[in-house]
């Protein structure tokens, strides 16, 4: 296998669930480089590196790097401006009294 | 754990935990694809389209994990819930040749899941659905077709299934049967290398005419799921968006050659 082919963000679910208690596959993220907002599942994931590198589908800048060692994980999200995560409905705090 | 946390936490295992599943059954689908039925005692249930990670550990401690789509609804067996995955052999792969050639009945494999909250079809959806599969990309789409029948959904489904040759069609007999029996399911095939006897047209890669003829028009606001190799998915998604389907209603899942 010589071509640098990528997978999509769906395959990040398992590795990310090791770090987060919520499912991030339907979370929306904004690319710091080009401003595109889209779901984590739509990222282009390269797994040939030592770890996982997820790039913006529009501009191909790196948005997430995740490296997993035997006893620790490194998560680098400097290419992501924000993540908007769907949550179950509940009273936000502080709310009206 | 405080009292409040205890009250809101679920006893259900979270999907990030690896648990041991065992092979209970194997079915040959095509010369290069097999369905593995795994008994997973603490399986919490899943939605059609979700996947699992399977992890193998070699005697020297080396581990390899791969994602596989779940092929249908979970069923209850004597030893607990059973799920099935369909594995396509990847030439020079690290995991798929082992799962197809070596992995035996009763053997353990670590399972993590269900995973994925994006590429899923919720059975309460009533919108028409178009499914576009490239090769083994049919697996999560078959999970949706099987779930539709299992819950008695009336949502109209259309599957466009691209394969190299007629012998590469996974679930061929079941799809033929379902087209006859599952009211509201249509299946169209695209052959890229060799078409069956009496097929009208030449083998070709999927194009605008196929998607336009066999899919739903954008006016019907269908939900679309495209799964297959990366280049196939990009091509089909671009065609659909070009036809006027809003990109947020076109969900994609790409398979890479990492086997």
UniProtKB/TrEMBL annotation, chain A:
This is Ribosomal protein S27E. It comes from Micromonospora vinacea. InterPro entries: DUF6510. GO terms for cellular component: ribosome. Keywords: Ribonucleoprotein, Ribosomal protein. The lineage of its organism: Bacteria, Bacillati, Actinomycetota, Actinomycetes, Micromonosporales. It comes from the Bacteria.
UniProtKB/TrEMBL annotation, chain B:
The keyword Chloroplast does not apply. CDD domains: FNR_iron_sulfur_binding_3. The keyword Metal-binding applies. Its cofactor is FAD. It comes from Micromonospora vinacea. Keywords: 2Fe-2S, Iron, Iron-sulfur, Metal-binding. Residues 16-121 form the FAD-binding FR-type domain. Pfam families: FAD_binding_6, NAD_binding_1. This is Ferredoxin-NADP reductase.
């Amino acid at each position: 296998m010589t071509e640098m082919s990528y997978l999509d963000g769906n395959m990040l679910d398992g590795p990310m669930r090791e770090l987060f208690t919520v499912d991030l596959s339907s979370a929306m993220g904004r690319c710091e480089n080009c401003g595109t907002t889209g779901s984590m599942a739509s990222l282009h994931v390269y797994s040939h590196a030592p770890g996982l590198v997820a790039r913006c589908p529009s501009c191909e800048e790196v948005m997430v790097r995740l490296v997993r060692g035997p006893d620790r994980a490194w998560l680098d999200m400097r290419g992501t401006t924000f993540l908007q995560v769907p949550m179950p409905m509940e009273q936000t705090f502080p709310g009206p009294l | 754990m405080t009292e409040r946390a205890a009250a809101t936490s679920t006893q259900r295992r979270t999907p990030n935990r690896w648990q041991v599943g065992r092979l209970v059954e194997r079915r040959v689908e095509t010369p290069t694809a097999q369905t593995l039925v795994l008994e997973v005692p603490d399986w919490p249930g899943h939605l059609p389209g979700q996947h699992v990670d399977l992890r193998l550990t070699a005697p020297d401690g080396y581990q390899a994990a791969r994602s596989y789509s779940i092929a249908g609804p979970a069923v209850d067996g004597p030893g607990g819930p059973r799920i099935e995955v369909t594995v396509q052999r990847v030439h020079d792969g690290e995991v798929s040749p082992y799962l197809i050639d070596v992995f035996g009945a009763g053997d353990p494999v670590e399972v993590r899941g269900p995973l994925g909250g994006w590429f899923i079809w919720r059975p309460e959806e009533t919108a028409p659905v178009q499914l576009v599969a490239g090769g083994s990309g049919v697996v999560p789409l078959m999970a949706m077709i099987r779930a539709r029948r299992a819950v008695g959904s009336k949502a109209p489904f259309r599957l466009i299934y691209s394969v190299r040759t007629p012998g590469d069609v996974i679930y061929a007999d079941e799809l033929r049967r379902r087209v006859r029996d599952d009211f509201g399911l249509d299946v169209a095939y695209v052959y890229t290398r060799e078409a069956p006897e009496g097929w009208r047209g030449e083998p070709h890669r999927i194009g605008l005419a196929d998607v336009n003829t066999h899919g739903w028009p954008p006016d019907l606001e269908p939900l679309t799921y495209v799964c297959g190799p990366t280049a196939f998915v990009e091509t089909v998604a671009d065609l659909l968006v070009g036809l006027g389907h809003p990109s947020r209603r076109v969900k994609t899942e790409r398979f890479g050659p990492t086997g």
